[in-house]
Design goal:
- By secondary structure, this protein is of the alpha/beta class.
- The chain has two domains: 161 residues, HUPs (Rossmann fold); 89 residues, Alpha-Beta Plaits.
- Helix content is 47%, strand content 13%.
- It has eleven helices and seven strands.
- It has a four-stranded parallel beta sheet, sandwiched between helices. A three-stranded mixed beta sheet has the order 5-6-7, covered by helices on one side.
- A hairpin with a 2-residue loop joins β5 and β6.
- α5 runs parallel beside α6 and α9 runs antiparallel to α11.
- The chain starts with a helix and ends in a 15-residue tail after the last strand.
- This is ATP-dependent sacrificial sulfur transferase LarE.
Length: 267
Amino acid sequence: MDLSTKLSRLEELIRNKAPILIAYSGGVDSSLLAAVAQEILGSDNARCVLVDGPEVPRRGVAEAISNARSLGLNLEIIKGESLSKDLKQINPSDRCRHCKIGTYQILAEAAKRYGSNSIADGANISDLGEHRPGIEAFSSCGVIHPFIMAEITKQDIREIARLKGLPFWDKPSSACLYSRIPYGDEITDKKLQMIEESEELLTNLGFKQVRVRHHGNIARIEVQPEDMLKIIGLKADIEMKIRKIGFSYVTLDLRGYRSGSMDEVLS
């Protein structure tokens, strides 16, 4: 199926599900979905809700708000709840499922207030090849996935956004801060703070796609392979500053950045 056919199918799906509430994060996927929905339905029938919890980086929230303003989106930001104490201690491999169920409850209340017929997210075909219990949880709650229904991949999303002249088309992929902590390791506010500060440091140094994985007292840095020489050139400064944040050791993952690297230990 060519891209124009996929886009036509997406637009038809959105029309048929209106009025629609979009689970918005400010990432490329949800931003494109919101932009297309607003273009077709108008802002009153294509509302966006960003659930802002402790797992969301502050930079991500700021960028989401900026995106929404530039697109003229009808955005509401609602405070999200943290995981329960027990779930933080256990940090199970289906952690995302628990998060999404809590997020859905917030979205459902907003949809009821707005009179929205459907709640939609930016999940796409490319996500189906990864460990994504959150998609299954959203599906079980009745959330629709227009990109999946239209057979649209992550690459398609970026290309559609580029063709539409949307400035976020090449924005780096993002994920919640919880995903930087290995399953089975307790999630704490201190760990989240250390991760966010370390990633902010590297982003400010010009690294576009970066993850800092928290392995006890070890920071495992993932950057794109083409950025490895740059990070090695800055290693003394980076190592000193990340140790000041609280890590004892600072390492570079030689496989480079990859989405869901914490899932590689799952059978």
